[in-house]
Amino acid sequence: MLSNYAEDELIGIFYFIDPDLVKNKNFYTAELLKMTKDYNVETHIFYGKHLFDYFGYSDIWNEILEYLQEWKKEIPDLPEINFDLEPQQTFEEIKDLKPLVYRKLLMNDDLFNEIILSLFPEKKTLKLLYDYYLTKTETIYRTIANNLSKRIKN
Description:
Radius of gyration: 24 Å
Structural class: mainly alpha
Helix content: 55-70%
Largest sheet: 2 strands, parallel
Oligomer: single chain
C-alpha cells in the first residue's frame, strides 16, 4: 500500500544513539544516497546528539546523558570479560579444551574478530596457547598453532 504522504513530505532518518558507531558511516551514507535517488526523499544519518540538533532539541540530549549516567551508577557491576588480565590463569583453565573447539573458533573470521578478540584483546592468552600447541606432536595441534600464528601476528 502506498503512503498517504507525498514523497516530498517524507524524510528518512537512520539513527545510532552511540556516537562512537561511526565506523560504518560511509556504507550507510552510500545506501541512504541510493534511497534518496530511488525514492526521491530526503535522507539523513545521525549519531548521538545530532538527531536532537536536527529537530532543535539539543537540550534533550544532555538530559538523556544525565539519565544514562545515573542509570549506570545503579546497575550492578558487570563481570570482567578481558581474559588477558591474568593470561597464565586463563591459559591454565582453557588449554585442555578439545581441539575441535579451537578449530571452530579460529576458522570463523567473524567469530574470531568479534568475540575472541573481545575476550582476549591483548592476545596474551592466545600467545600462550600458541606456544603450548607448538610443543604438541599431533597434527591437529600443529594446525591450531598455524592458525593461531596468523591470528596473533597483528
